[in-house]
Amino acid sequence: MTKVTYKANGKLLLTGEYAVLDGAKALALPTKLGQTMAVKKTRGSDLVWESLDHEGNTWFKSTISLMDFSPISTSDEEVSERLRKLLKNAVRLNSEFLSKWNGFKVETQLGFPRDWGLGSSSTLIYLIAEWADVHPLMLSMKNSNGSGYDVACAGADGPIVFQSDDDAINYTPIDYNPTFQDKLFFVHLGRKQNTTDQIKYYLKQVKNKKELSNQISEITEKIMKATSFESFEKLLCQHEDIISSALNLPKAFTEKFSDYWGCVKSLGAWGGDFVLATSNKSKEETEEYFASKGLTTVIPYKEMVI
């Protein structure tokens, strides 16, 4: 039977982490690495689901009842519960979705390691929304307490400016292609951060969220317009100082890279996943520095960003 394949981009948040939840303008970057999902009708009456990692190995498998989306069999109860919630909410948004009495075989495959934090959850939300023919952000709002920028990135053709407030969510494609991108590197810190826990911490810790939002929006505007490497680097460091002060958390630079020659900025939830490192030295020297810290995943900007 015919197989339909859907594709979603990964994501990185260049500016606006935390403050994006309270209306700050954020500059978000869709990544070349994402997730795909192949859907095929079957003669059965269940949904057979298999999730593959970036190397093609199965990390999750389940047979799901199309009556209530509960697992008939599963390799992971927690993942099954998240999937059940996603599918149920997709049906709430489109009652025609999965209403026909036939089974499906679904296979997802990540384009990046699961601990990279590039959006294994947000890409899945987008993929299921595409399959269900519902708006990805509507499905995201029913499943996550995040801003939704990651799901917006999943379907974007390039960088976007994302802003969410009480009235609406707005995201606009922008032509963001810095001339100094050969001096920008994404470095993986070797561990994945729990975004939900970090959001809870932010909501509890930061008192004047409106002031923080305004400060970050201003820096985002300036970063988008920065034409020189020096001004971009200075703005990145300012952004990091503001968030560090608001969260009362040490910067990645202070904690791990105080002897580094450039700026190191956290991307998304602090303490894990990727940081952006600026460098006016060669790629080899930059890689060598981070390797000396035990960090071997150093990806140039143009290799990562769509």
Q: Tally the beta strands.
A: 12
User: What proportion strand?
Assistant: 25-35%
Coarse shape: globular
Biggest pleated sheet? 8 strands, mixed
Question: What is the H/E string?
Answer: EEEEEHEHHHEEEHHHHEEHEH
- Low-confidence region ranges: none
- Rg calculated over all Cα atoms: 20 Å
Structural class comes to alpha+beta
Helical proportion?
Answer: 25-40%
> Would you tell me the overall average pLDDT?
93
Give the N-terminus to C-terminus distance in angstroms: 33 Å
Number of helices: 10
Secondary structure layout plus pairing:
Blueprint lengths: L2 E11 L12 E17 L3 E7 L5 E8 L5 E4 L2 H17 L9 E8 L9 H13 L3 H8 L5 H6 L5 E5 L4 E5 L10 E5 L6 H11 L3 H17 L3 H19 L4 H5 L7 E3 L7 E5 L4 H10 L5 E3 H4 L2
Parallel strand pairs: 3-6
Antiparallel strand pairs: 1-2, 2-6, 2-7, 3-4, 4-5, 7-8, 9-11, 9-12, 10-11
